[in-house]
Design a protein that fits this description.
Length: about 450
Amino acid sequence: MDVKEIWEKAKPIIQNNVSSISFDLYIQPLMPECFEDGTFILSALSTRDANYARNERHFPHIDDAIKKVAPLVEKVEIIDAVEKERRDARNNPTQETPLPEPIIYNNNINPQQTFANFIVGKSNQEVAAMAEFVAKHPGKKINPLFIYGRSGLGKTHLLNAIANQILEEHPSTRLVLTTIEKFTDDYVNVIKQKGDFGAFREKYRNVDVLLIDDVQELASKQATQEEFFHTFNDLFEHQRQIVLTSDRHPNEIATLSERLQSRLKSGIFQDIRNPDIEMRTAILQKKAALEDKYLPNEVAAHIAEYSNKVNENIRDMEGHLVKIIVYAELNGHTIPTLEDCDAALSDNSGDEETARVGDIAARVIATTAAYFDVTPDDITGKRRTDKLASARSVATYLLTQRLEDVPLTEIGEILGGRTHAGVIFARNKIAEQLKTDDKLKAAINDILNQLDK
């Protein structure tokens, strides 16, 4: 049998073992290239498609089916378009020199985190648009891009989406996607081992794109800050694309050096906020579809409402979805029901911190609202009057005092989507007025006394 015949006979076997969506998207487009030295080679249209076909959910079925049809096959290999071009060039002397090997210093780029499966809504449409622009025009207008917001809202997903799109469209791009923790570890290891700083700097500076997650981890790392400052400068001066993420604005990162803070502020800042119920519902249904599960609309909405009520991030919400699906299957339900939701969500010991923040915030807002004779919805709403402005400013100030460990972006979300700058302005305004305004001081003390009862 030739390679085409082997592949045609293997495909129905694979189709019986994977979902129809997976087969149509990632298996069917694969093309048989050759069978030589015991290795059967398939090619994919892109790096992303090759990575999907190679993952543990698909590749074992591909491997088993081909070896079942052709027992002489010892190994199955899936190559992408770039690898195919290099292979063709080696086999054809008239071809031009192959493309250079892309520099990717890590293997933690997640091929499943793309722009195609990033749900966009009111809370993240600006940051998603900026990330896509960066992926299409690296090193141009939006550089550096600094994305900030509480954990679990999709910052890492966007970093991976940028990496995946750039490498798919420009496979020879020199790209690094890493975390500040890994950057620090590499730097410390060079110092401890008295190693080659040249190699370290080559790794992080001789790139076209640098994507770094969790920049808030730079806090209190003075030596790492110094090295990162020079790395940032070098890349920025050579118009190399830089994208950074953090769970807070640079102004909130403790002990960040003034000059590094200034450097970070030289680019574009964009926050990513909590999703609303509609967006949460869409995310849950997308997640279920990716897992080849059917999630009824009313069940998705029920989970979304619960998640929104406890001010949960997307990652935790998706974790609850998995828990509900497993609970339903253990009870013999192929499709989760509302009863499965309630039972699975009845014991969520992992939500203690979220519940703590939510409880404190609710009490502060309710007590402040009662003092000013308005409703909690007035404080978190959009209506503007002098009375409401005062109530909101006081509530903002009290929340920053009672929730000192919570990023200001999250406090802004609690207050109905106030911006980071808006929270800082209200907090500082009240703090300044308290120095001279005895009436305001009495009001704050009255509210605090009510809260402490």
